[in-house]
Amino acid sequence: MASLPSSLVFTVRRCQPELVAPAKATPYEFRQLSDIDDQEGLRFQMLGLQFYRYDPSMQGRDPVHVIREAIAQTLVFYYPFAGRLREGPNRKLAVECTAEGIMFIEADADITLKQFGDNLQPPFPCLEELLYNVPGSEGILNCPLLLIQVTRLQCGGFIFALRLNHTMSDAAGLVQFMTAVGEIARGATFPTVQPVWQRELLNARDPLRVTCPHREYEEVENTKGTIIPPDDMVLRSFFFLPTEVSAIRRFVPQYLSKCSTFEVLTACLWRCRTIALQKDPNEEVRVLCVVNARSKFNPPLPVGYYGNALAYPVAVTTAGRLCNNPLGYALELVRKAKADVTEEHMRSLAALMVIKGRPHFTVVNSYVMSDLTRAGFREVDFGWGKAAYGGPAKGRVVASYYIPFRDNRGEDGIVVPVCLPAVAMEKFIKELDAMLNADEELIRVHSSTKYILSAL
């Protein structure tokens, strides 16, 4: 179930990075980001990888040329991506639409897709070669908002690697842009879904009103060194087939049987991870569930909106209660947290960002879970068909992603990258395996509804 890090080594030959500007003239203007976009927790670079197989029907067509030209055409519609981010008073971010362009790298690798192995999933070997960090380009302000590297493989396949300034878009917005590039690469003259800016829809109300609790943004002191240090970290991906999800569901009480796969996996992984990290039983621990709030609005946000429409609803308890209670306890907390996201929650959150100076969500003893199973990365098609893998390039220390994946037997499941210190990773695997292979007596105890309740 756990994939081992690869020792594969290969050489990538890169051309000089270049700027790809919109193919036609675009408006010069300043466009403000929303009060959800410019929070501190989104001021980082999001990394993605797409692997594409050789397609005989595309013989003679160069993916580098096709994609570079399609990007230039797509930027006519998504011209803010070709600009640069500026920071104004009160840390407010805006895009100066300069049409300078996105950064693009053409590359070739002396390797075939088959050599990556049957199971394409993080961690990927030589990632820094497949997505080169051009010196001076990685800043949040005054730098290219997108960096794309297309690397040809010896087999005729290719890798599309991308780095996005997360303040510009969430996963749904990024996939919308990538899908547009794919449509134009395949011959369309304009995207099926027209981009919508309208970031003012997620700005704070006037007067400012915080009407909901937002414990995900509480200021928590790191008194026990509980932000996991990067030293001795291990990244493993875990592949959950429906059979593994069903094995975990055996622990779910009957009255929670309608819970989603995201909810049951999140409860399970949060609990196993906390046990593995051996926290003080009295320490507060949190799980933050990334929720796409587009549909929570009435009317919903317009189709084509490509800004961040994210919330981070949080479940809070103590390590002791989480680890000593059955799985149903964690599951109830996760379900309740997700249900907190409403239109009013988002309006309140926007106000909180303005009042508090656009803070970062709480990192101390937090675990962030993001469901990308319906985001659509795998479906992005530049003419060579769907991606063999599409999604995050790597896991993060405090976050895991749920990535849809089809294994070499054609079975569909969910890949979850997990990052932990080496000793904790061993404990995590042991704890997870114990749940997957539990006998009926252990399941009976765990599916009990007698919990030590959380007062937090």
UniProtKB/TrEMBL annotation:
Record's keyword annotation contains Transferase: yes
Pfam families in alphabetical order: Transferase (PF02458)
Matches recorded under InterPro entries: CAT-like_dom_sf, Plant_acyltransferase
Bilayer-crossing regions: none
Keywords: Transferase
GO biological process: fruit ripening, climacteric
Superkingdom of the source species: Eukaryota
Keyword Iron carried by entry: no
Molecular-function GO term, any one: transferase activity
Family: Belongs to the plant acyltransferase family.
PANTHER family hit by this protein: ACYL TRANSFERASE 4, OS05G0315700 PROTEIN
Name of the featured protein: Uncharacterized protein
Species for this entry: Malus baccata
Upper taxonomic lineage: Eukaryota, Viridiplantae, Streptophyta, Embryophyta, Tracheophyta
